[in-house]
Amino acid sequence: MEAIRLPIIKTENLTKIYPGGIKAVDGLNIEIEEAEIYGLLGKNGAGKTTTIKMLTTAIDPTSGNAIIGGYDLRKDKEKIRRIIGVVPQDLTTDADLKGVENLRMIASFYNIPKQEAEQRIKDLLEIVDLSDWGNKYVSQYSGGMRKRLELICGLVNSPKILFLDEPTLGLDVNTRSKMWKYIRDIQKELGVTIILTSHYLEEVDQLADRISIIDHGKILITGTPDSLKASLKGDVITMEFNSMEDAELARSYPGSLEASVMGDAKVRMKVENSDTELPKILEYLLEKNVSPITINVKKPSLDEVFLEYTGSSIEEDIDPEQFRRMMQNVRRLR
């Protein structure tokens, strides 16, 4: 008989209401499996940061509860803190200390015996290819190296669960893709469960075993990246026209699965297969003496999934405070 596998994190109607009646998280119910990489996607204000703060015991829930690594969120905060690691999006390492000095300082916070701490630090530096840089000052590190050091800072206490909040924020595309490799290596070698928040959809697509989309404090859908894309059941064609009248004519094309007119005379149309349907659409428009200015075809992607379930693209939401912090990190990483 196969043993029942319990989730390493399970929330039960987890809710957070801030002063003024602002409901940041509304009856959240999620289950995260042991040793998986779980992505939490949402716009600023959707509730993902508040969720992470509750799960890491930084703030108390208003109602509901969670079981984290077998411990009760409301009763066992200290025990939970011992089994989790947190890597915030802001840089926390001291640039005036050496890499190993930063790691030793964290080890001292957990009262890890010196010999054990030294071996652990050595192993962690090897995982992220920083063995030759451990005894150099962090101020000498490149941006990518600094982020790698930040990553293993969250692993010094050998956590069962690692929370990564925007782990590649401020990095260029090439360095970001290298960081993905290190995150995968960490999950594979250490068997740690990783909860990842990111506004880079490609990042979550590449890394996460499962993804939940959160909006207005509620989970809208959860699944693997492939299953979420498959849920769209079709390709998306976006066309721009000279007038709203032309857009309305295009929207009436009978072969679409669904179609809607957006602002600026744009039509978003879902079809089963764009390769076979687009020529028919153009023929239909030609008969009505209508010509689109632009045509954009998108196969199912996480961006389209996000748009489908939330009604807006994740890139549309640029929070001034997050942008300020991102630019601050970029300057510090250079």
Automatic annotation (TrEMBL):
GO terms for cellular component: plasma membrane. It is found in: Cell membrane. InterPro entries: AAA+_ATPase, ABC_transporter-like_ATP-bd, ABC_transporter-like_CS, DrrA, DrrA1/2-like_C, P-loop_NTPase. Gene3D superfamilies: P-loop containing nucleotide triphosphate hydrolases. This is ABC transporter related protein. Transmembrane segments: none annotated. One of its GO terms (biological process) is doxorubicin transport. GO terms for molecular function: ATP binding; ATP hydrolysis activity. NCBIfam families: drrA. It is a peripheral membrane protein. The keyword ATP-binding applies. It comes from the Archaea. The keyword Cytoplasm does not apply. Belongs to the ABC transporter superfamily. Drug exporter-1 (DrugE1) (TC 3.A.1.105) family.
